[in-house]
C-alpha cells in the first residue's frame, strides 16, 4: 500500500492505483504515445515493487478506460485516441438538427462530416413491462408496438434505438407502425399526418449501467461491465383531455467509450459542440482530491 498524507488527513491507496495513475499521466502528457508499448509486467513489478497480479490490476484499470490495448503474445500498447461522437439531445427548431433520434440525429451525423446508416427496422408486438409500462402509463402485460434499429457511424456500431407505441395508435389508423422498414417522413410526422397527433414535448431520463449481452456483443465491449452504456429514455407527450399524455417511449443505448452528450439551454453559439478532451479533472487536481 502507498501512504499519502494531505490536508484532509492520511489516506491509503493501493499500489495498482498508483501504477495506473502514473501510466495514465504519461499517456495523457504524451510521454507514452499512441501505439507505443508499455513496459513489460516484469519491468513494472521491479519499478513499483509490486506483485504480478497488482501490475495486472493496474493494466486492467487502464484497459477498461480505453487507454491501452493488450495484444496476446505481444504486450500492452497505448491505444489510438478515440474521437467521441457528440450527440446534441436538445433539438434545434431552426435547423432541425439534433435531438438524438430519428432523421434529426442522422442529420447531425452528416453535419459533422460522418456517414450514418441503420439496419432495417424490426417490428414486434410485445407485452409492456418495467419502464415501458411505467413511461407509457399502461398496465403491465398490455400489448405495445416495438420498433427497433441498429445504427452505425462510418460503418461502426453507434447506438441501439427502440421505440414503443401503444396499440391504440394503430387502431386509430396509424397502421404503418406495424410494418417493418423505415417510415421515411419520420414517425412523429407520420402520426401527425395520419391521426392528427402532435408531440407537444418530451422528457429525457439518462441512465448509466452495465451492458446487456446483446449490447456488449453489438458494440464489441468487454463482457465484464467495465465499459458502461448510457441509456436515454425519451418519453414523448401529446395533448390530452387532462393535460400532456405519453404516446411513445424511445430507448437509445450508446456505449460510453465513444459517445458524449450535449444539452443546450438559452443563448449558446450556433455551431455544433466539439467533443471534450476526456471529461477528467486535470492531473494536479486529481492528486489533491
Q: How many domains make up the coordinates?
A: 2
CATH homologous superfamily caption of the largest domain = Chorismate lyase-like
**Can you count the helices?**
9
CATH class of the largest domain: Alpha Beta
- List the quaternary state of the chains: single chain
Cα(first) to Cα(last) distance is 18 Å
Can you give the helix content as a percent range?
25-40%
Give average pLDDT, whole number. 89
Unreliable stretches (pLDDT < 50, length at least 5) are 1-10
Instruction: Decide which structural class fits the backbone.
Output: alpha+beta
Taken from the alpha-carbon principal axes, the silhouette is elongated
Largest sheet: 7 strands, antiparallel
The Rg value, from CA coordinates, equals: 23 Å
Q: Order of SSEs, N→C? A: EEHHHEEEHEEHEEHHEHEEEH
How many extended strands? 13
Q: Beta-strand percentage?
A: 25-35%
